[in-house]
Amino acid sequence: MANYVFVIAIIIVALSAIQSTSITFTERDLETEESLKNLFEKWVAHHGLEKDLDNKAERFNIFKDNVKYIHEFNKQGHSYHLGLNQFGAMTNEEFRNMYAGGKIDRQRITRSRAIGGRYMYEKVEDDISITCFDWRQKGAVNPIKDQDQCDCGGTFSAVASVESMLFIRNVTEKLLSLSEQELVDCGFFTHGCSGASVNDSFVDIILKGLTTESDYPYTGKQGTCKSFIPVANISGVEFVTPNNRTAFTIAVHNQPISVAIDASSLSFQLYNGGIFDDESCGFNTTHAVTVVGYCNSIGGDNYWIVRNSWGTSWGEGGYIRIKSDVRYASGLCGILTDPSYPIPTNIPSPPTSTYHDSFSVE
Ligand SMILES: *[C@@H]1O[C@H](CO)[C@@H](O)[C@H](O)[C@H]1NC(C)=O
Ligand SMILES: *[C@@H]1O[C@H](CO)[C@@H](O)[C@H](O)[C@H]1NC(C)=O
Ligand SMILES: *[C@@H]1O[C@H](CO)[C@@H](O)[C@H](O)[C@H]1NC(C)=O
Ligand SMILES: *[C@@H]1O[C@H](CO)[C@@H](O)[C@H](O)[C@H]1NC(C)=O
Ligand SMILES: *[C@@H]1O[C@H](CO)[C@@H](O)[C@H](O)[C@H]1NC(C)=O
């Protein structure tokens, strides 16, 4: 029995090790059709996709295009690099249909329109001269989750913001991992796996509360609603003043913030690390993520630390750093257009400290 448990533990450790990174390759792997084929097989095994690929020959052709694109791109030396993550054999169109707004009119569902409403940190005098701030270092952010093939990024973003807020405000003693599946199955306003917005997810959480991840585990498909006991509640949602880098920085310094972004580009699909600065993404937001930190420095790197829900083999262990010192107020990929956050049932007065503007806001 003990041996059996031991073997299972090893398998689990091995599996998580396999999937935690993207695979690397060199120029040699691209030299011949056969070396490319070997790389492809290695990639398939690495991501455990043997069963998922129905048309292997077609996948191989897409894979080859992506590998060559990645290789050429990385040779140019950008501030970020691309890699062979789990989306390595998908065309950008397929990727957009599945994960970034191809299926429906995202404009309608990801925009919550930050009008009216309260912004709790509006009058906060906050010290954001601190160069880098990261809620992960405070133990306030759960390990990365994976929405898999369910288009419900808004739900993952909202739940992540709730988990962190409850812990930061001392509502929960520990950092809880809460259930996205509950909203996918039971939400009134969320749309299962067909594009749930952050706002709809927050409204459902206000109405129903959330149970734990382990009591209502994730399946990645919309199923029938099962009964559950809510262990966490929020009383409302507020909107950060949109398109204002200072206001947004102060908000993130107080709690992780849910945002909508345009994640539809090929560079976003294959992002593998570094500071993302691809200005080709637009302001028409297609996905939702959670900002858990930032770095501000004069003459150095300025970026948002962004938690995604595509597992750990995408990006920097599931995160992306997005350039924050850009020319337009809406932020890169529209990241500042629609920021919102949950508030606890007993709303505490926001903390105050001295505010030093360490960077210039355009
Ligand atoms: C948030 O969603 C609810 C439920 O769909 C809707 O009634 C409300 O108007 C939305 N709020 C905003 C600001 O979009
Ligand atoms: C939460 O508790 C910690 C430790 O007791 C305390 O330092 C912190 O100020 C509390 N936070 C809030 C928002 O009450
Ligand atoms: C959350 O709200 C529900 C419904 O109002 C209530 O039954 C539950 O006890 C609350 N949970 C907590 C932890 O406050
Ligand atoms: C941006 O937000 C800050 C902090 O809330 C505020 O002081 C400033 O006036 C805002 N700027 C604009 C252009 O609204
Ligand atoms: C954003 O959407 C509008 C209206 O659908 C469209 O006209 C515009 O070209 C889009 N912009 C980008 C950058 O995708």
UniProtKB/TrEMBL annotation:
Signal peptide, first to last residue: 1-20
| Pfam families in UniProt | Inhibitor_I29 (PF08246), Peptidase_C1 (PF00112)
Classification lineage: Eukaryota, Viridiplantae, Streptophyta, Embryophyta, Tracheophyta
Q: Which residues form the Peptidase C1A papain C-terminal domain?
A: 131-343
The protein's UniProt keywords, in alphabetical order, are: Disulfide bond, Hydrolase, Protease, Signal, Zymogen
Residue ranges occupied by any Cathepsin propeptide inhibitor domain in the UniProt entry: 40-95
Name of the protein in its database record: Cysteine protease
The Gene Ontology biological process terms listed for this entry are: proteolysis
Indicate the family of this protein.
Belongs to the peptidase C1 family.
